[in-house]
Specification:
38% of the residues lie in helices and 13% in strands. The chain has 367 residues and is an alpha/beta fold. Helix 1 packs across helix 2, helix 3 runs parallel beside helix 4 and helix 8 runs parallel beside helix 12.
Length: 367
């Protein structure tokens, strides 16, 4: 049995829905979250040559376009609780003259905002919330991403679409960089064809899409296809993304599935003698993954060997400037090695949860 790392397209969704829910109608859409980030920086008058503080626990694909555009990146280590130290952030802001800080809401768990904002306010640092992992999470009953000067999203990490980068501007900003004539919506036929093949393979159970040899091919293909130059041009959301965002009932249903899958997996993890990285879920939190502690650093390879789309993050995409400086960023390097992420998305059913729990119990007995 293969347990896919990402959800299947929902072919039952009503594609005739034309109006997005009011919570999302003010978003400016892009192909990717990192593209939205570049546009957001410019809208906040943070220009190439300026310094930006970024958590060291980050995917290099997020910072690579900023570096290519000419921004100066200053990394800051995260705590074991995935939070930034406000005092350390303020010190770094003063030393670097940073104009902006990227605050990441990791894996659906909200980052603490107010202490950081208070510490950075006197330095005039803009805060951009990175909600790419946390699109479904709510804070105080409201969508995440309303606290900072701006927020970015990457809905393709949660919804079965190839697009979904989006920018929210929460303050007075220069919209000349973003309010330009929008391109047409992307054609997602190639994406749907690719996903159909993946789903057929998963139903057959062979080949194992998470075999290490296939992983090597995927990484090679990603490197070969990467473009370091990104043009931050907005676009219309695809017809599928628009339909998903138009249905609050659909988003509520998949949020409930994430939450239910996480609770069931969490109970089984604890019974197996393993441990979750996070405490019990807070109200409004919709986790993107079940995040386990893995001191052995062997759990992810074990699960992938048995056909489960488990992963680490950012894994092979931790910036070299971080991985090569373990003494400067010890926690980020440790989290990258010792957090195991198990899929709990809306396409995961009870049978697949039971399969993952069986594998976790076997792993626990072997280790």
């Amino acid at each position: 049995m293969l347990v896919l790392a990402r959800p299947k397209p929902d072919y039952q969704i009503d594609l005739t829905r034309a109006t997005m829910h009011a919570e999302w109608e003010d978003l400016i859409f892009y192909d990717l979250g990192r593209t939205a980030l570049l546009a957001g920086l410019r809208a906040l008058a943070v220009y190439p040559g300026d310094a930006v503080i970024v958590p060291a626990y980050i995917c290099y694909s997020t910072v690579e376009p900023m570096i290519a555009a000419g921004y100066r990146i200053f990394y800051i280590d995260v705590g074991h609780d995935l939070q930034l130290n406000p005092a350390r952030a303020a010190e770094l802001a003063e030393a670097s003259g940073a104009k902006a800080l990227l605050l990441v809401h990791y894996f659906g768990f909200p980052a603490s905002f107010e202490p950081l904002a208070t510490a950075l306010r006197k330095h005039g640092v803009r805060i951009i919330e990175d909600c790419c992992h946390s699109f479904l999470t709510r804070i105080g009953g409201k969508v995440i991403g309303l606290q900072g000067d701006a927020a970015i999203y990457s809905m393709r990490k949660t919804l079965p679409v190839p697009d979904g980068g989006a920018l929210r501007l929460n303050c007075t900003a220069d919209r000349s960089e973003v309010d330009i004539e929008k391109c047409a919506a992307p054609d997602i036929r190639r994406y749907l064809t690719h996903r159909s093949v993946e789903i057929q393979i998963a139903s057959l159970g062979w080949p194992n899409l998470y075999d290490y040899r296939i992983d090597l091919l995927k990484r090679y293909a990603r490197r070969a296809g990467k473009s370091k130059s990104i043009q931050a041009k907005p676009q219309l959301p695809s017809i599928h993304l628009r339909a998903y965002l138009a249905s609050s009932d659909y988003l509520r249903q998949i949020s409930d599935r994430f939450f239910t899958n996480h609770e069931r997996l969490e109970d089984g993890v604890r019974k197996a003698g393993l441990s979750m990285h996070n405490a019990r879920l807070a109200a409004g939190c919709v986790p993107q993954w079940a995040v386990l502690c893995d001191p052995s650093e062997r759990l992810v390879p074990w699960m992938r060997q048995h056909g489960v789309g488990a992963t680490r993050w950012p894994w092979f995409e931790l910036p070299v400037a971080v991985s090569a400086a373990v003494d400067d960023y010890p926690v980020s390097n440790e989290l990258n090695r010792r957090l195991a992420l198990l899929p709990i998305h809306q396409s995961i059913d009870t049978r697949q949860i039971d399969n993952m729990l069986t594998l976790l119990n076997k792993f626990a007995m072997r280790n």
